[in-house]
Amino acid sequence: MQNPPSPPGGQRGSVNLPASAFNQYNVRMLQTPAHSIRSDFARVLTQKFEPATLVLVGLAREAIAGQFEHLATDAVICESAKQLANALPQNGSTPRCDLAVWVYAKGDSEDEAIVNELARVADDIVLVPAAGADVPKRRPLLVESFRKRSLVPDYDSDVTEVDPGAIRLLRTQSAEGTAFVPSVETAFARLNQRMRGLERTLRTRMSELEAADRHIAKLEEKVLNLKEAKKELKQLKQEKQALRKCPERKIGQVLLAPYRLPQKLFREIGKRRQARPVPLTRQAAASPDEYQTWFLQRRPTPKEVEAMRAEARTFQHAPLISIITPVFNTPVSWLNAAIESVLAQVYEKWELILIDDASTDPQTIAILPAILARDRRIRLTRLPASGGISAASNAGIAIATGEWIGFFDHDDVLEPDALYQTAKLLLAHPDADLIYSDEDKLTENGFEAPLFKPDWSPDFFLSYNYICHFTTIRRTLIDSVGGFRSEFDGAQDYDLFLRIVERTERIHHIPRVLYHWRRSASSTSDNIRRKPKALEAGKRAIDEHLQRRAEAGHVAIDWRTHAYWVKREVRRARKVCIIIPVRDGIPLLSRCIESIVKKTSYPDFEIVIVNNDSESQEARDYFARTTHRLLHYPGPFNFSAINNFAVEQTQCPWLLFLNNDVEVIDSEWLGAMVEHVQRPEVGAVGARLLYPDNTVQHAGVVLGVGGIAQHAFRGFPAEDPGVNRQLQVTRNYSSVTGACLMTRREVFDEIGGFDEERLPVTFSDVDLCLKMRRTGYLIVYTPFAKLYHHESASRRRSVEALETDVMRERWPDLLERDPYYNPNLSRERADFSLGRNGS
């Protein structure tokens, strides 16, 4: 394609902008943006412009030089203004090249110097944004700098095939008629920013639609199964009726009558059978009967309850806890059960604030005065009109006198020691600001579906409101954030908690089931019609939370798990050094590296192979032809020492330790890890690793399970949600595996790297993460970075007793109680199943 001709004499006047001019800022929706050093970059440049000589600024020679080897263009490649000045020294006023291309990055102190040099050597310049460059901000500034040097945009020239954000500048002999350029660039920048916003919205909506489509497909499958079951049930009923009428049945009734158990005895046997402990199976989720048996065995006995009551009366610090309970047309039996559970509290310094949100049910209205008369600590306020749960809760908070506020739904039930456990925690942690407990569901058949929560996990909390019940918050903190907001009804507690945690990190967890959330048609826990509204309100709450924290990101709803996916924007793309130790095993290494190169959309990375005494000819041949950086580390295999050595030899700000038996299967894997490693509070990021049969190999590391540590959800199907959604959402762990672990160089240096002396191989990754945790950093697991781990083919090594002893000596408390793994869960396997024998 030939270049469009320039106006005679290079003069510029008013320009009728063609549609192609607006393509200068085109964004390719739902695709990775074009990258400035793609494999055909040089070919496109030379075919479009046909320059005999070309100057390329802003790219490393090794990244681009190979593309010009077979092209009839003399290319001068410079990384800086100084290199450009040396390569093309001053030679009068004659331009030194036919075309200059500047791949500009986010911002550089050299901008002015590069502009000067390019204006000196070329009359024809193309500006191309590098990956991560802020085009709306940078391009108008650069265009204006060149305009001052008589180089102005040629809006008639379509250079989008070079790059969607590229623009061509040509020299003009007169500044006359170029005054319009700044306003045009400003308009372009504004349009581009708007387009970016629309793209983000589209990405979010597409993610939600895809999740909704998957959910709809599953529902349709269930409907079909139900239809088949309904047909089968109808047929069975017909067969049953036929059997009832047959004469053989009447004869059988007479013959079997002496053998029938009396009904009363049968029921008694059934009760005893239900009371007997049921052995737990190896499934992750306990059945309702299993859990109910487990819970009743661990519930405080009447004697223990009285001992707690006596102890509570001796507490040196006994704050008043105000319980806020909005009431609206509550069934009388449920409301009475809720009130009884408050009256049964062994900690006696409480007040119950009932807020009647203009109930219309006569029975509810009639029972409230009787409830008020039951205890002087119960207070009632009636609202003239129904304002919703947020307005009612705020009305209750306004008249509450307690130092602490607890939230209690009108149809739920508290355990007798709920307030006692809260007050006891405050004795140990008087500076606490928010306290939450474990919970379960209450049905007509008893207790089921427990939610055993981790200690405070900020990333898990952004995936869904796992805090929920029973929550108490310091009154002054609630007042400081303005209480509930009615526009978030359905997720009003989530919105409040998000604003609270922005102001405090003094968040404590009581790992006991103290709250029973009633499953009913009116509650969000089971009402599917209320789910979309609540989920949308929660999404808006997270959006605002991110805005308040000045964190750019997009929130999508996973309609299958009813959780959220917070995808953060990468503020500044920095180079990732992918460190891969290897000793022979070249087929594994070759597959690993080939998958990285072909399937990674994140643009800025380098691969560093660390050869540890490979002996095969195959390895020697591979190393001789590889284009990636190769280091040699001689001596016995020491995972820690090899990786420490590699870090010392590199300068990349971000480090990724990767096993050679890992295979990339999703192009977004590296970007998904980068979006977390850029966060200053994060120390390390781990990925979801799968076996080739699409079962889970790694989804985080749990301490103290099966010995020192164990991978979470190992063996689960890849698409299984896991217990309480935890397999499919971003969350925090105490550790992630070193088979795919990303961190920042400054964090790695700060904690001293891997321990190559005492933990040469086993547990070195766990120890690294625990040192980060001790220093105050978070460890993040993201399920959105997916890779295969061909673990069975990798180096295998038995766990040495010495390394086990080191871990027990160094981290005894964490091995006894992993803060991200509830102590009520299994200590035998890290599948988040119910614990046995007190575990």
Cα gyration radius (Å):
33 Å
* DSSP summary: helix tally: 27
The CATH homologous superfamily name of the largest domain equals Spore Coat Polysaccharide Biosynthesis Protein SpsA, Chain A
Largest sheet: 10 strands, mixed
**Residue fraction in strands:** 15-25%
Q: Which percent range fits the helix content?
A: 25-40%
Spell out the key features of this protein.
nine-stranded mixed beta sheet, 38% helix, 3 domains, 29 strands, Spore Coat Polysaccharide Biosynthesis Protein SpsA, Chain A, alpha/beta, Rossmann fold, 839 residues
Detailed description of the structure:
The chain has 839 residues and is α/β, with parallel strands linked by helices. It has 27 helices and 29 strands. The strands form five sheets. Strands 18, 19, 20, 21, 22, 23, 24, 27, 28 and 29 form a ten-stranded mixed beta sheet that branches. Strands 7, 8, 9, 10, 11, 12, 13, 14 and 15 form a nine-stranded mixed beta sheet that branches. Strands 2-1-3-4-6-5 form a six-stranded mixed beta sheet, with helices on one face. 40% of the residues are buried. The N terminus is likely disordered.
